[in-house]
From TrEMBL:
Gene Ontology biological process terms, A to Z: peptidoglycan catabolic process
Taxonomic classification: Bacteria, Bacillati, Bacillota, Bacilli, Lactobacillales
Disordered as annotated region, ranges: 171-191
Organism for this UniProt entry: Paucilactobacillus hokkaidonensis JCM 18461
Name of protein: N-acetylmuramoyl-L-alanine amidase
SMART domains for this protein: Ami_2, SH3b
Residue ranges occupied by any N-acetylmuramoyl-L-alanine amidase domain in the UniProt entry: 12-149
Biased composition (Polar residues): 171-186
Superkingdom of source: Bacteria
Molecular function (Gene Ontology), one example: N-acetylmuramoyl-L-alanine amidase activity
InterPro entries: Amidase/PGRP_sf, Amidase_domain, SH3-like_bac-type
Domain SH3b, first and last residues per copy: 205-273
Length: 282
C-alpha cells in the first residue's frame, strides 16, 4: 500500500449515519474545490457532516478518513448512499504532476476497498461495480453532479483510461500519458463574462452575508444549480462579489477567486425582479 490513512478528521461514534450500507457500489467523486488540500476538505466535512460527507478524501500519498467504511455516507444522493459502503473524493490540484500522484492514490484506494467489499472492478456499467458521481446523476438521479471527469481531464484521463486503471491499477500509465492540450488551462480558470446560462452580469462590488439557516451552495463554471459544487456555505459566512445577475429563477452574485469565479444564488427571482433574500448585502 503506497498511501497512509489519516483518521484525524474521522467522525466520532455518534456522528454520521448509523446504518450499514449494502455492498453494491463504490462511488468516485472529486472535491470540485481546486487548490484546497485533501486535509482541508476533510476538516470541512468533519465540521459540516450533517449536510454531506464521504468516507475518504484522497490526497498526494495520504488519505483522510471522514465517514466509517461500510456505513452510509451522504455524498451521492438518497438513491445510492445506502448502496455504497465506500465513497471517495479526489483532491483537485492545478499542479499537473501532483494531480497525477493524487490520482494514483485515488485509484489504489478505490481498488483496495472495492476488493475488500466484494465490489467488481468495473466502471460505470450495469450491475454492481465502481461508479462515478456522474453515472449516478445520469442513471439513478437524486443528484446532478458530473464529477470526477472534469478534474481528470486536466491530466488527460478520460472514461476509457479510468476504467482501465480501476480494472488493472494506475501503474506507470498515468505518469507517461500526455495531458490534452487544454489540461494546463482548465475551464474554471477562464471565467466567462457571459456563461452558458446567458446571464448578463451587472457590475457591483460588495459583501453578502448568508442568513438562511440551510446555507447556500457555491458553484463554479457558471451561474447554474447544475454547475460543479465548490462549497456549501453556512449561515454567517460572507462572500465578496463584483457583479450580480439573474438566471434560472435566482439572483446570482459573482465571487472573484484565484482560479476564476464562484457563483452564489442569493434569493429567488421572477425574470429580472428579486422576490426573496437569503442574506444581507453591504
Amino acid at each position: 500500500m503506497a498511501y497512509t490513512i489519516d483518521k484525524s478528521f474521522a467522525l466520532a461514534s455518534k456522528e454520521g449515519a448509523s446504518q450499514k450500507a449494502s455492498n453494491k457500489y463504490l462511488i468516485l467523486h472529486s472535491t470540485a474545490n481546486l487548490g484546497a488540500s485533501a486535509k482541508n476538505n476533510a476538516s470541512y466535512e468533519k465540521r459540516t457532516w450533517t449536510t454531506a460527507y464521504v468516507h475518504f478524501i484522497a490526497g498526494d500519498g495520504i488519505v483522510y478518513q471522514v465517514g466509517t467504511p461500510g456505513y452510509v455516507a451522504w455524498g451521492a444522493g438518497p438513491k445510492v448512499n445506502g448502496l455504497s459502503p465506500v465513497q471517495i473524493e479526489m483532491e483537485e490540484s492545478a499542479d499537473v504532476a501532483k494531480q497525477r500522484r493524487i490520482y494514483n492514490t485515488y485509484i489504489e484506494l478505490a481498488r483496495d476497498y472495492a476488493k475488500k467489499y466484494g465490489i467488481p472492478l468495473t466502471l460505470d456499467t450495469t450491475g454492481n461495480g465502481v461508479k462515478t458521481h456522474n453515472w449516478v446523476s445520469q442513471n439513478l438521479g437524486g443528484t446532478d453532479h458530473s464529477d470526477p471527469y472534469g478534474a481528470l481531464k486536466r491530466i488527460g484521463i478520460d472514461k476509457t483510461q479510468l476504467a482501465k486503471d480501476i480494472a488493472n491499477g494506475a501503474g506507470s500509465s498515468v505518469a507517461t500519458k500526455p495531458a490534452t492540450t487544454t489540461s494546463s488551462k482548465p475551464a474554471v480558470s477562464k471565467p466567462a463574462a457571459t456563461p452558458s446560462t446567458g446571464i448578463k452580469w451587472i457590475a457591483q462590488t460588495g459583501v453578502f452575508t448568508i442568513t438562511d439557516s440551510d446555507g447556500i451552495k457555491l458553484r463554479s463554471g457558471s451561474a447554474s444549480v447544475k454547475s460543479p459544487l465548490l462549497a456549501i456555505l453556512k449561515k454567517g459566512n460572507t462572500v465578496k462579489y463584483n457583479a450580480y445577475g439573474y438566471a434560472g429563477g435566482y439572483v446570482w452574485i459573482r465571487q472573484p477567486r484565484s482560479n476564476g469565479y464562484g457563483y452564489l444564488p442569493t434569493g429567488n427571482a421572477s425574470g429580472n425582479k428579486r422576490t426573496s433574500y437569503w442574506g444581507a448585502f453591504k
